Amino acid sequence: MTYGELGASRTRRTVTGMARLLKALRLDGMLLSGLAVISLFGMFVLYSAAGDNTALWFNQLARIGIGFVLMIVLAQVPDHFLRMLSPAGYVLGLVLLVVVAIAGDIGKGAQRWLDLGVIRFQPSEILKLAVPMMCAWYLNQRPLPPSARDILVVMLVIALPVGLIAEQPDLGTALLVAAAGVIVLVLAGLSWRFVVGGAVVLGAAVPVIWHFMHDYQRQRVRTLLDPESDALGAGYHIIQSQIAIGSGGVFGKGWMNGSQAQLEFLPERSTDFIFAVIGEELGLLGLVALLVAYLFVVGRGIYMSLQCRDAFARLLAGSIALTFFVYACVNAGMVMGLLPVVGVPLPLVSYGGTSFVTLMAGFGILMSLHSSRKLVG
Amino acid sequence: MRRVRIKDDALEQRIYFQRSLIAVGMVAVIALVLAGRAFWLQVAQHQHYLELSQGNRARIEPLPPNRGVIYDRAGRVIAENTPAYQLEILREQAGDLEDTLSRLVRFGLLEASDVKRVRQLVLARRSFEAVPFLLQLDDEEVARYAVHRHELPGVLLVTRMARHYPYGTVGAHAFGYVGTISEVDMKRLDRARYFGTGVIGKTGVERAYEDDLFGTGGYREVLVNAEGRPVKFAEGSGQPLRTIEPRAGKDLRMTIDIELQRVAEEAFAGRRGGAVAIDPSSGDVLVFASLPSFDPNGFARGISRSDYLALTENPDQPLFNRVLRGTYPPGSTIKPLMALAGLEYEVIRPEDQAYCGGAYSLPGSRHRFRDFKREGHGAMEMKSAVTQSCDVYFYRLANTLGIQRIHDSMARMGFGQPTGIDVAGERGGIMPSPAWKKTAFSSAEQQVWFPGETVIVGIGQGYWTATLLQLAKATALLSMRGHHFRPRLVRALIDPETRQVEERAPVALPSVELRQAQNWEIIVEAMVAVTTGGTATRAARGAAYSIAGKTGTAQVFSIGQTEKYNEKDVAERLRDHALFVAFAPADNPKLAVAVLVENGGFGASAAAPIARAIFDAYLVKPAP
């Protein structure tokens, strides 16, 4: 036996040991590594974006810990429990939304927060998972592709919380919640006629939507179309983030060296606009690397969803994976000036506990759904 | 009939598979769009955004140049840059601004009436910008600040360079002063060059040589954050920050002798007037006194409104430059030049006698032009007419010459036009002639030249007005027998770095040639006689050198409409101006002087002693 063979076998032993542990914990190794890589990358960037504020960095580290623990815990929950809990979670979410509307704290000019004394959280976060769960739960009981009546019911299930969230007003979250539900519907086999028809109706409804929009929301749309029109006001975010990204070039200005970010030209640089910090300091290479990591997670999620044992699991798993990508591209599109500025964080990278924890909970559920199939065989 | 559908898991799996494939395809497309956008921003538009980010981070901070130092002819400092203390408020360190302001009032560092203005000033700027509110503290204020410093957080004592004139009021009208750049100044200057500079030469040499004195401003790029606050940040990439050093202005060496200037000003003993002393061999102006004077340091510090009003509303007009802009009837001081004109045009010979009976009348007229000596001087030839300043002799001579020939002759001596001295704002006075009268008056009957007007021009009255500079220059010309130079206040520029001295050659003007050169000697001889047996004998008594001079007394005809007099003042201000022109030594002229004492009365007693003091100080060197 040579030294080389000895080393190789030891490595193999370690790998198989690791695999056994993951299996015991009902975790998917590939997805877990993808999430871990993005989280580490996020902490790396946040260290630069946070500047002197190291407390912020440690806060985020703690939340990542909480997020991963929650993911592991949720991965242990059998899928039939999740299915059973879906209607209850949905109703609870709705009730909390109503409570917030009546008694919620005013935070950032919008009623989003619920103060439970110990923790403050946004009930709308629950709906990010509760809505697709509810949709999948309902459709699981119906023959697919869904009938017109089923579609109507699901639309109602989606519209109720979305309306309440949009009224807070939190357009970004409302859109994400709606997207999570609609994705379930589309994956379930929603007729393309409805998809096209829906798009047409939505297009026709633009003036109506515009009419019901809040002033700040209208301003964001106007700003997207012509950022220079309000260069020091609403357009400032978009202009400065594009300057940051554009000036980064292919290789970036270097970690901790982005003048836009470090000199505070870039607003919200550790939260919603952290994508611009990556673009400035790590360049095109950094952005593409992050994009590839996201694609890997989404791809793995879709792959896992294909192996799920029933419609509930498939639809929910697919929705969780695709919604994750919607987050990423809405944030990236907004920071790069392709979409209006809506408050959507960059998934797993932006500073902000609620968003991170919700995402990890989703992936925990995804892992649970995936591993449950094996129990049946 | 309604068809009942049942779940078909195989079908549902197939649908899901199809749908997820489409979703993956869309994800790929969107990912490509995002990557394409990043490529567009970071590769295609990279240069554009790089420049924008560069512009974002750097702010230009001016580095004003050091203003050139002004020396007198002996190298004594007349204007320099000295550190001045000013108080500034830094709001973000001050805590409660109101509290700070009220403390400043209590400690006597701020007037209660100024609180409102300072508050506005401070609030108009960003919290991390220091706002100066008290410029140029005196020693007592600095001491008071030092005592209370611990009670005044956010109030900073800052030094800066400020113009300082060590001689104060002495010679202020010659070198002028610097003051805050006004909107009028903004129009005539290069804004980029004056970026970050608060003051500019306003009058005198400070203004005329502004271009040389100022130098060239520099700047420094400072890294700032989005709020504009300067920050320290290690540069990884991007263009380095630039610093362009300022270049100091040139030093000036003036022609003024500041000690001689002081002697002249002290000789006035508080009276109003002016004195000019010129070196006839170069045109150097050694004395340029306009009294009363003012303290230029006030302007350099930033003069308060009340102080400025005190200067402008003072009836003695301390800001009025009497040497450059005061135009006075030259009076009898021009009698030697009148005599010279008579000789040149050969209408009179030195020995020709004329009888003075105390008055002169034009042929066919009953109007009597009176001599200042009522009983008359009796028989006068040229020399005695000059020494005793006989008016009748010159009335007659003027009438004989006629106004045109007087004008032509006096124009050659420089009257009626600026001397061309190297500071701005000079007036040319009036050398009257029929042609001048046509342009000066609008109605036809006023434009007619009357013979009587010629007569009084003969004794330097009437329309004739001249500046002290013109009188001094004409005297210098006479002393040099026709050679003359453009008067100047600056003789050399000095490079601040190499200390190389760039001497400026005197500017010789075309000489005045006489048909008979000995006519110079006749006139000079008469002027010497003025101080040895004529009107100025007493003032010249005991001088170690000979003086050629001429006294004068100019009538004050009218009171300016804008001037305000109180009852007591009127009598004094209606008195004649006393004048004296002279050069010395008569045989080897070193200095030509013109002195005027406003409402001083008789020239010999009021003005001549001042000229004597100047000559003594300049020509008789004190024992070492």
Description:
The complex is a heterodimer of chains A (about 375) and B (about 625). Chain A is mainly alpha-helical and about 375 residues long. Chain A folds into 2 domains: about 25-75 and about 225-375, no CATH class; about 90-215, no CATH class. Chain A has 14 helices and 3 strands. In chain A, strands 1-2-3 form a 3-stranded antiparallel sheet. In chain A, strand 1 and strand 2 (about 110-115) form a beta hairpin. The two termini of chain A are about 40 Å apart. Chain B is built from 27 helices and 23 strands. In chain B, a hairpin with a 6-residue loop joins strand 18 (about 490-495) and strand 19. In chain B, strands 2, 3, 4, 5, 10, 18 and 19 form a 7-stranded mixed sheet that branches. Chain B is α+β, with helices and mostly antiparallel strands and about 625 residues long. Chain B is elongated. Mean pLDDT of chain B is about 85; it is low at about 560-565. The termini of chain B are far apart. Chains A and B meet through helix 7, helix 10, helix 11, helix 12 and helix 13 of A and helix 1 and helix 2 of B.
Beta-strand content bin of chain B: 15-25%
Q: Give the number of DSSP strands of chain B.
A: 23
Count structural domains of chain A: 2
| Uncertain segments of chain A | none
Helix content of chain B: 25-40%
- Counted by DSSP, the helix tally of chain A is 14
Gross morphology of chain A: globular
Q: How many individual β-strands of chain A? A: 3
Summed up, the helix count of chain B is: 27
CATH architectural arrangement of the domain at 61-164 and 216-249 in chain B: Alpha-Beta Complex
β-strand amount of chain A: under 5%
Structural class of chain B: alpha+beta
End-to-end Cα distance of chain B, whole Å, is 138 Å
Instruction: Report Rg of chain B.
Output: 37 Å
Q: Helical residue percent of chain A?
A: over 70%
> What's the N-to-C terminus distance of chain A?
40 Å
Average pLDDT of chain B: 87
List the strand order in the largest sheet of chain A: 1-2-3
